[in-house]
């Protein structure tokens, strides 16, 4: 596989170069209109990079330009990374999708959570709901304290019945499952660094922010203040509280560069391995990228749908990933993408997707958080422009 850091002539891979240029024009127009502040945008086909854009501001208020090596708070893209760590445990026979969580974390078995399985949490059908554990933000940064608080929380809905997206709590529990199963007794942060990021050469990725990466960090800033899910004060406090040793909820505490997210996405496209580093088997990637929630809607989108007057649409969830599926509805993935397209997105500002049929991987990490569905429509439009530029 050729280098993902060397631009290839897009026409040699079937793209209309002039059509690709319009993507940059569209992004620059939106940044100038202050819809968001800036971003890093990468696209590869068959492992060869055909689009590499660094646009706008890393921090608009100080006029600091976006860096090619910028480090982003990747929000819920963290779930795809955590899911990979958990699926590795399944491959080793240490746990299964049907294992009750309390078999690994005994204190979890209270307040209706006795029947919750690992699979329920992976597919957001455990009934844990959206809200983080009701403890101070500094305590949320400590895995042990977060897990203890979540164990005391009741379920919002019975396990297995509805897709109730767990923004923070569910994947924090999965991180603890990974940690307790580790025979080396490592922290979750170290397990992920050594067993997932290391093999894929994701040198800019971590849970918590490495000291040497701090100057490249993109600060969290909210741009859509009419959004019901964007708690400006909470997000600012959370962002400023993260340090190198933080083990913030594994569903939203990761940091990475666009290049590293591209490497992770390419590894999934290629069946769990990249340049000799394997983290999952092809069979597990196939399961990870298959629909686990049928046509049930995602309750996470209820407030955003109400804001835009939209009817419910399918969640299309895999294991730690979102799937394109079929139909026309808001998604961070293109309307034009094949139904088997999969990816992940983080709160209002970033996402990646892989169209395995066309062998295309697209990464967009931005600064300036937008309301969810506005962000979906923004990324969907850019993705449709990217696929429309493909002429073979």
Question: How are the elements arranged and paired?
Answer:
Blueprint: H1 17-32, E1 38-45, E2 48-59, E3 64-65, E4 72-73, H2 77-91, H3 118-122, H4 137-140, H5 143-151, H6 169-181, H7 188-197, E5 206-207, H8 232-241, E6 254-256, H9 258-269, E7 273-274, E8 277-278, H10 282-288, H11 302-308, E9 322-323, E10 342-346, E11 350-355, E12 360-367, H12 372-388
Antiparallel strand pairs: 1-2, 1-12, 2-3, 4-6, 5-6, 7-8, 9-10, 10-11, 11-12
Helix pairs in contact: 1-12, 2-6, 2-7, 5-6
Task: Please state the average pLDDT score.
Answer: 93
Identify the overall geometry. globular
User: Rg from C-alpha positions?
Assistant: 20 Å
Please report the total strand number as a whole number: 12
Explain the overall architecture.
This protein is an alpha+beta fold and 392 residues long. It has helices at 17-32, 77-91, 118-122, 137-140, 143-151, 169-181, 188-197, 232-241, 258-269, 282-288, 302-308, 372-388, and strands spanning 38-45, 48-59, 64-65, 72-73, 206-207, 254-256, 273-274, 277-278, 322-323, 342-346, 350-355, 360-367. The strands form 3 sheets. A 7-stranded antiparallel sheet has the order 3-2-1-12-11-10-9, with helices on both faces. Strands 4-6-5 form a 3-stranded antiparallel sheet. Strands 7-8 form a two-stranded antiparallel ribbon. The longest helix has 17 residues, at 372-388.
């Amino acid at each position: 596989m050729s280098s993902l850091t060397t631009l290839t002539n897009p026409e040699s891979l079937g793209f209309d170069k002039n059509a690709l240029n319009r993507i940059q024009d569209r992004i620059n127009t939106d940044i100038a209109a202050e819809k968001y502040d800036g971003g890093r945008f990468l696209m590869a086909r068959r492992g060869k990079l055909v689009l590499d854009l660094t646009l706008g501001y890393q921090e608009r208020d100080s006029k600091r330009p976006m860096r090619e090596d910028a480090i982003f708070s990747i929000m819920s893209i963290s779930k795809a990374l955590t899911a990979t760590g958990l699926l590795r445990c399944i491959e080793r026979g240490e746990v299964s999708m049907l294992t009750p969580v309390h078999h690994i974390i005994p204190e979890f078995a209270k307040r209706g959570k006795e029947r919750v399985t690992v699979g329920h949490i992976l597919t957001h059908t455990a009934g844990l709901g959206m809200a983080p554990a009701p403890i101070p933000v500094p305590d949320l940064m400590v895995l042990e304290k977060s897990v203890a608080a979540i164990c005391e929380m009741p379920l919002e809905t019975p396990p297995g019945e509805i897709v109730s997206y767990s923004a923070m709590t569910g994947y924090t529990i999965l991180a603890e499952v990974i940690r307790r199963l580790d025979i080396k007794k490592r922290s979750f942060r170290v397990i992920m660094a050594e067993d997932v990021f290391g093999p894929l050469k994701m040198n800019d990725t971590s849970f918590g922010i490495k000291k040497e990466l701090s100057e490249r960090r993109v600060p969290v800033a909210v741009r859509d203040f009419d959004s019901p899910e964007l708690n400006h004060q909470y997000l600012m406090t959370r962002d400023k509280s993260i340090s190198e040793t933080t083990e913030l909820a594994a569903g939203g505490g990761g940091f990475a560069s666009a290049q590293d997210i591209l490497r992770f996405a390419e590894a999934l496209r290629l069946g769990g391995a990249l340049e000799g580093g394997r983290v999952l088997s092809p069979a597990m990637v196939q399961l990870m990228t298959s629909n686990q929630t049928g046509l049930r809607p995602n309750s996470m989108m209820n407030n955003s749908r109400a804001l835009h007057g939209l009817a419910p649409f399918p969640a299309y969830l895999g294991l730690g990933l979102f799937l394109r599926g079929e139909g026309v509805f808001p998604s961070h993935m293109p309307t034009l993408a094949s139904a088997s397209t999969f990816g992940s997105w983080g709160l209002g500002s970033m996402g990646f997707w892989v169209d395995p049929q066309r062998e295309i991987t697209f990464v967009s990490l931005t600064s300036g958080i937008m309301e969810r569905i506005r962000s979906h429509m923004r990324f969907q439009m850019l993705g449709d422009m990217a696929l429309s530029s493909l002429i073979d």
